[in-house]
Design a protein that fits this description.
CATH topology of the largest domain: Rossmann fold
Helix content: 25-40%
Strand content: 25-35%
Largest sheet: 9 strands, mixed
Number of helices: 14
Distance between the termini: 55 Å
Structural class: alpha/beta
CATH architecture of the largest domain: 3-Layer(aba) Sandwich
Strand order of the largest sheet: 2-1-9-8-10-11-12-13-14
Length: 445
């Protein structure tokens, strides 16, 4: 069966001198990317990496990161992204929990290794491709194990749905967010060019617009928050531009602003546990004209959708193996050949899916999935505060606490990624309760 890197190797043969990836003033052709990744792969194989072994990538955005990632796959290993901007405790936990056999940090020299395509013994599409950590309600992130077969099915479907050719794609997403896989793999299997940008560009709509226009970009995949910043600059999409909006619900006001753009736009939905995106909706004239929530569309190839007591359950080829080192949670969430998403929704008369919200209290914030319990556990750890509740208020993460007022932001920043640190801390004498004695979240100020 085909693995991710086999698709890319086939494209290398077709367009060896085309530009595969750009980072600032540096770039790699398909031939150069493949050769350097092969050297990484041969080195890892010599160091004992075998199919299903995990290799940690503790590297920032760079050409070296792209080379290392592809090299891990070619060696038969699975990569786990460890963002060096995360607090060290967070990185250390993921490295230990994943059982990473090798840790790459971007300063290794692989120049003495062969540049030929390796063929790792025993590697099949059923082996792991990557391990992505998502927020966990227990206070610890949990690793989602995804195979080559799941990703290859996803890529084949996306190529068809998006009519994806040799696009110039601007990659705004870090590796710890699994949708980065679409930007990289789909672009490289179709002969396109991936333009990597810094975090500063992602956060500044004017800088992002400049990159899109400078490189003649034809594709952008990002969250509603980043799209909002881009559209607010007055950016106009060139004819034929393709865009994906996903990671959290697409607000109707944002969709209204897209209406005048000459672009093809897709609204996507899917958790990490079912491989990047599981449903797709190309926004039609009818959807633009409709009021209310935006459809997330129909399942992609070899994917099934079911509603169980209103909860969205996803099955099919995209299902992950489960959670790393968490067999009980895996059995609970991956039951009967489906993943229980925790999202609620309903099928429209046409058969497409409309989401209603979360069954639990999980938050989607700027595309990141956050378990409030993990942030609340961190607050208890640094402050000894027994009662805390974390909610999304507008475009801010807010922590409500019962206890003595104190400064928590700097301490939390040392143990949580920046996107999980609340913007505001509200201290209350007591939490409001319902008549049943439960926390009344609606009554919080």
């Amino acid at each position: 069966m085909t693995c991710i890197h086999h698709l890319i190797e086939a494209q290398v043969e077709r367009t060896p001198e085309a530009v595969a990836v750009v980072w600032g003033g540096d770039r790699l052709t398909y031939r150069e990317l493949n050769a350097r990744a092969n050297q990484v792969a041969h080195d890892l194989i010599a160091r004992g990496v075998r199919p299903d072994d995990v290799v940690g990538l503790n590297m920032g955005r760079s050409l070296e990161l792209m080379v290392a990632l592809l090299g891990v796959l070619k060696a038969g290993g699975a990569y786990v992204p460890l963002d060096p901007q995360y607090p060290q405790d967070f990185v250390d936990y993921m490295a230990a929990d994943s059982g990473a056999k090798v840790l790459l940090q971007g300063h290794e020299d692989f120049g003495a290794q062969p540049t030929s395509n390796p063929r790792p013994e025993g590697l099949t599409a059923s082996h792991l491709a990557h391990l992505i950590y998502t927020s966990g309600s227990t206070g610890r992130p949990k690793g989602v194990e995804v195979t080559h077969a799941s990703v290859v099915n996803f890529l084949a479907s996306m190529a068809q749905i998006l009519d994806y050719g040799a696009e110039v794609a601007v990659g705004v997403t870090g590796l710890t967010f699994d949708i980065a896989g679409l930007d990289m793999y789909l672009t490289w299997m179709r002969g396109g060019t991936l333009i990597l940008v810094t975090r500063a560009v992602v956060l500044d709509g004017a800088l992002l617009r400049e990159v899109l226009e400078t490189y003649g970009a034809t594709f952008l995949q990002t969250t509603p928050y980043t799209w909002r910043g881009l559209l607010d600059t007055g950016w106009q999409a060139p004819a034929g531009f393709k865009g994906i909006c996903g990671g959290e619900m697409l607000p109707r006001p944002l969709l209204d602003d897209f209406a005048a753009q000459p672009l093809r736009l897709w609204n996507m939905y899917g958790p990490t546990e079912t491989t990047i995106w599981s449903t797709a909706c190309e926004i039609s004239r009818e959807e633009f004209a409709r009021r209310g929530p935006v459809s997330v569309g129909f399942p992609i190839a070899n994917t099934t959708l079911h509603l169980v007591d209103g909860e969205v359950c996803i099955g099919g080829a995209g299902l992950a193996r489960g959670y790393r080192n968490l067999p009980e949670l895996t059995r609970e969430k991956f039951a009967d050949g489906m993943y229980r998403t925790g999202d609620t929704g309903f099928f429209r008369p046409e058969g497409d899916l409309e989401l209603l919200g979360r069954k639990d209290h999980q938050i989607k914030f700027h595309g990141y999935r956050i378990e409030p319990g993990e942030v609340e556990a961190a607050i208890r750890k640094v402050a000894g505060i027994a009662q805390s509740v974390v909610l999304l208020r507008g475009d801010e993460l807010v922590a409500y606490l019962v206890g003595e007022e104190q400064t928590l932001r700097d301490e939390l920043a040392r143990i949580l990624p920046a996107f999980m640190v609340p913007a505001r801390f509200v201290f209350l004498p007591r939490f409001p309760l319902t008549v049943n004695g439960k926390l009344d979240r609606q009554a919080l100020p």
